[in-house]
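Tokens as discussed.
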């Protein structure tokens, strides 16, 4: 994942992804060779040279919701292979696509790149909106339903089931995901000076398994970027093994564990770009 330990070979790849998400065309082009080649995998040439790549991305950077989220990265010799999920605006509406990007790095810049793109997944079935204080009861009910399965695991109510959502809806950023005419999921966030803290991600049991949790976690990265923050943090109970496994797959790392009540809280973070 992106961090200050990014290998030198991966550095230009990470830097151009950061610039892509900032829609900064000049910063983006710094990491592409003048004679670079840009292919649709395996061999369909899409752009020849930096000027054509620049022109292609000037159009792309006009999309209001454009954002590339790094899912996984592998470095072999001078090749960098990224799995990314990219949010875009398609002719039929907003959505996301999975992309496998293969970069050949020479002399500190990208010499050639190949992209294998999956089919779009439209967001037309989902409405995402900011919560109001009047949503407090609905937030509480959804959170209680989502966390109920952990009651026998902990032997007590998880913390999200014990807080006052009238205060949280006023003081925190809570975004609500609606689908099929009802509130299906939510994410609660708190921007700090150097990171975005995720306090709560909850999905109604009837809607679990559809990827809404992943979508909201990706949304949190976009929120962090809009606040100019380079890191997302969250915490969970050590007994919530499936949650920790998901966060790890999405690029979060364990920073520390601390005792809490009769167990341990696991603190995790995900840097969104390489530290300067």
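Sequence:
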């Amino acid at each position: 994942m992106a961090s200050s330990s990014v290998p030198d070979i991966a550095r230009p790849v990470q830097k151009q992804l950061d610039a892509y998400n900032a829609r900064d065309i000049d910063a983006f082009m710094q990491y592409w060779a003048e004679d670079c080649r840009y292919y649709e995998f395996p061999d369909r040439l899409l752009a020849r040279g930096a000027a054509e790549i620049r022109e292609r991305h000037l159009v792309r950077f006009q999309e209001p919701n454009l954002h590339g989220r790094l899912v996984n990265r592998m470095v072999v010799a001078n090749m960098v292979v990224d799995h990314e999920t990219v949010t875009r605006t398609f002719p039929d509406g907003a959505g996301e696509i999975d992309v496998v990007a293969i970069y050949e790095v020479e002399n500190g810049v990208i010499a050639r790149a190949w992209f294998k793109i999956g089919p779009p997944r439209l967001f037309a079935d989902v409405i995402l909106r900011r919560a109001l204080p009047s949503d407090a009861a609905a937030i509480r009910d959804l959170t209680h339903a989502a966390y109920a399965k952990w009651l026998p695991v902990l032997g007590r109510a998880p913390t999200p089931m014990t807080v006052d959502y009238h205060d949280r809806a006023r003081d925190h950023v809570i975004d609500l995901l609606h689908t099929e005419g009802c509130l299906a999921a939510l994410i609660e966030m708190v921007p700090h000076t150097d990171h975005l803290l995720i306090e709560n991600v909850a999905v109604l049991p009837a809607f679990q398994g559809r990827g809404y949790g992943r979508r909201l976690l990706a949304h949190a990265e976009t929120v962090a970027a809009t606040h100019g923050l380079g890191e997302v943090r969250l915490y969970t109970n050590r007994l919530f093994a499936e949650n920790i496994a998901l966060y790890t797959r999405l690029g979060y790392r364990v920073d520390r564990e601390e005792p809490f009540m009769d167990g341990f809280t696991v603190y995790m973070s995900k840097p969104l770009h390489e530290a300067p």
